[in-house]
Amino acid sequence: MLTVKNLTKIFTLEKEKITALENVNFEVKTGEFFTVIGPSGCGKSTLLRLLAGLDTPTSGSLIWDEKPSIGFVFQNFALFPHLNVFANIEFGLKMQGIDKNRRETIVNELLAEIGLKEFKDKHPQELSGGMKQRVGIARSLAVDPNTLLLDEPFSSLDEFTAETLRDLLLKIWVKRKITVILITHLIREALELSDRIAVITQAPGTVKRVIDDTLKRPRNLRSKDFFTFEDQLTNLIKR
Amino acid sequence: MRYTHNIKAIRKRKHILKISAVITALLVILILFLGFTTLDAKQFFGGFLESSARVLIAYFVALAVAMVTVLFVTSTTAIESVFVPVLDALQSFPSFALFPLLIVWFGKGSLDVIIILVLEMIWPILFTLITAQKQIKQDITEASKIFGAKGIKYILYVLLPMLFPAIITGSIVAWGEAWETLIAAEIIVNVAGVGTYLTKAGSNGQTQVLIIGILLLLLILFIFNKYVWLPLLNMSTKYQQQ
Question: Are the CB atoms for A229 and A216 separated by under 8 Å?
């Protein structure tokens, strides 16, 4: 379990102080699909960067029950341009000093899982957006994380591709039983995927409410309950 | 399939043609030289080799110094804001102004030429590298951190390969400038080399030697550009960020 307590992050930009996050509180249960939703600029990406250890909070604390091993999926993929698909997925394992045979087994399994076996020798610039994000997901899974952090992973993709990748993400979550923390600004995406959804408000960013997404899985995006939830979330975010 | 095979065959044939053209050109120069001049062939071609060696040595020194400087200068924003303007000012300093001092210190010799070459070649490489380093996107450095590439691992597995295209473009510019500087520098210190032989030939009125020398110089530059820089440049486009 992860407990976020009174988390505050203040940036200093040219002597001006900007409060990105103020007294953020929530909990994420182990194995849960947890989503943080809010309008752009509300500090949700900052929150994820704090969780990933890429930045340190100004005050407050992050308490993990067990030592987190983290996989991170970026909005703009952040694949290494000098490495091919195989080497991109292999990267984290190589940095950990895992031996070559083991690395090959893991990467080949992942390539099959994301359906990009034939593309393993291609470089990122030769791939479509959807393929790139598949590689991004595989790269983050290679290190066998217990927590997967995703920063608006489908925002730079077209809707059809995004839909397939959401399905892939759900499959991965079910199969691996890992904790997933997703950042998004899309209400329907949050409702389709999550167990619980934290709504963050703007300036300064703070968690307004955490709602339980009780819709039955697999979720029907055209059901009456879905629309009710959608309205509820929309109102929360708007206000 | 037959069709693609044919294309391959044509490409191969073209390649052989190019190589034989280069070899023929070399032979023609050699024959012209032996037939028309009174200069010692061994000395003359040896001079060309020496000149090339100077450029090569200076290039590798300049590259190494530029890389270390980039790693240092871009390590923090504070260091960058102090040192980049300093380097910018140093860049415009005319390196030939150091010649008298170099001669006092080291006497007239190859070392002076190499030092001047290094001072000339370092700037294009250094500044392309600094620019390229700045263009590495934040999420790439974050991904490196998350997937365990910190410190020396970051330099080896992310930074250097990502700077590779810049290393090549910077090197091509530096290489071009180097030959210009080389000729002038060799004339000043009067060591065996392309520059010296061309001046000698000029003052002795040996037009043939001048022409042969210039042809040979062109050929060396052509071979290097065609068979070293161009393939490297093509290779580096694969590494480019979008």
Answer: no
Rounded CA separation A136/A156 (Å): 13
Q: How confident is the model at residue B10 (pLDDT cuts 50, 70, 90)?
A: low
Using pLDDT thresholds of 50, 70 and 90, give the confidence band for residue B1: very low
B205 — pLDDT class (breaks 50, 70, 90): confident
Bridge-partner residues for A28, per DSSP? A2
Q: How far is CA A154 from CA A37, A131, A158, A166, in A?
A: 14, 12, 8, 8
Whether chain A has a CB inside 8 Å of the CB on B239: the answer is yes
The sign of the torsion formed by the CA atoms of B94, B96, B100, B101 equals positive
- Full-model pTM: 0.83
Residue of B nearest to A74 (CA): B139
- What does pLDDT average to in each consecutive run of 10 residues of chain A (239 residues)? 92 86 93 93 90 94 91 96 96 96 97 95 94 97 96 94 96 95 95 95 84 89 92 86
Residue to mutate among A95, A125, A150, A155, with most B CBs inside 10 A, is: A95
- Residue contact A81–B239, C-beta within 8 A: yes
Return the pLDDT at A138.
97
Q: Is B147 on the interface with A (CB under 8 A)?
A: yes
Distance, in angstroms, between A239 CA and closest chain B CA? 32
Contact map slice: B 125-144 vs A, CB within 8 A? 137, 139-140, 142-143
Q: Decide if A124 and B242 are in contact by the 8 Å CB cutoff.
A: yes
Could A76 and B239 be called an inter-chain contact, meaning their C-beta atoms sit closer than 8 Å?
no
Helices (H), chain B: 2-36, 41-73, 77-91, 99-106, 110-135, 138-146, 152-154, 160-189, 194-203, 207-224, 230-237
